[in-house]
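Q: Structure for this?
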Amino acid sequence: MVIKMAVVGCPFEMSPMYEGERIRKDDLYVELAGPKSKGFEIVRSAEMNEIEDGKVTLIGPDLKEMEEGSNYPYAMIYRIAGEQVEPDIESIVERRNHDFQNYIQGYMHLNQRYDIWVRVSKEMVSKGLESLKQIAEATMMMFKNELPFIEKIEATFITDMTEVEKELEEARKVYDARDTRTRDLHDEDVDTFYGCTLCQSFAPTNVCVVTPDRVSLCGAINWFDGRAAAKVDPEGPQFPIEKGEVIDELGGEYSGVNEAAVRLSGGMFDRIRIHSFFEYPHTSCGCFEVVGFYMPEVDAIGWVDRDFKGTAPNGLPFSTMAGQTGGGKQVVGFLGIGINYFRSPKFLQADGGWKKVVWMPKALKDKVVESIPDEIRDAIATEEDAADIESLKSFLQEKKHPIVDTWAAEEAEEEKAAPDVAPAEAQAMGGMPTLAPMQMPAMSLTGGAGGGLKIILSNAKITVDKIIVKKKE
Ligand code: SF4
């Protein structure tokens, strides 16, 4: 489908074929919002008589007044009305801004809410794109075409920093109010979860499952949003998933979710444990707000969010780990989540929940500090306490983090299990917390190879698509 713009004066095409378009630094006219500035997007519902359909207001400099190669703040505020429009659907309409704007040639939109990051290409500007109003009009046209329950829509785009900051404060109150809605509802209280395939355009095997106790990893869709979306737009990207039988309550594994995993991932995955980091974890598309990373040296998990500009104790910044995690995969050792999942009473309960967490950036820790159990709060390090693995280990020992007790237990276990380790190997391993066993598929070696074979994997990351074991002729 290629839609040649019907909006007067628009030089660009809109089509899903532009969705994966990346605008590199050299091709960039301007960058809007993103890590070097501020911004957000929000959709609010209103009464029919409050909306002037199609109206666009721009506050701040327009594209043609912007300096090439610069960064500007950027807020996009849409107000919608219609007989079926209610506050419950604001989030899911808001999330569609991402895919509709990515249909625009020469315009790249990343992330959601207060994390948006937009780039406009030089090529589009040279072809005649001169105003953000053109972008607003094109996006509103898509909203009305694709979501017919929107009968009226108007937009306010802002590129003035003072105004963006002022409106962002208000927007944060709305996001917070949405996030608190699910606090009293839990997975066991409902028979239906909700799935979302919006991100399959760039992560084709991604299976997003939204439950009362697990917000979407983009953070923009909670269980109520999924329910409202499925109701008003039954053909849309959000849909019900019947829970089915409980397979593992602690891990959050359900027969209905597993069936959906097979269907939605094209057969790539057949099990998902919603509250597990290590075993059949939820897939990660790329829109996650936070990445979790396993540190075998301390047998525990750290978290890093998009706003953190430094490197985590494993020596990696968010961007590197995000690249490792995304793409719609189940990656043992990395996991993308939405910030609100930290507040869930079922937060990674299959792995010990907060007891398995040892590091997070200070700003992120401050955001969720009320959800961290009292007894562990001070024992979770930030960049101010630990910048690398060695300083992290010392901090955890000093603060008596519960993970430290497991090191001794694992060391004892290891000694019992491997009494014949050569002296040189034993010395190399001395004093190190041992690597927790990763979940490996059961494998038996036959044909006479079962005895005398010992494989030691240390600090290894291995991806295997297929193992073929053939009998020796
Ligand atoms: S991250 Fe998941 S819930 Fe959010 S838009 Fe993408 S597919 Fe949907």
